Amino acid sequence: MTPERLKALRAARHWSQKDLAGHLRLGVNGKRTVARWEAGGAIPGPASVAIEALEDGWSPGGGKWRSDREDFSQFLDRISQCVTQAKSLLNRNERDEFSSD
Question: For the residues of 20-88, what is the DSSP string, one character each?
Answer without folding.
Answer: HHHHTT--TTHHHHHHHHHTTPPPPHHHHHHHHHHHTTEEEETTEEEESSS-HHHHHHHHHHHHHHHHH
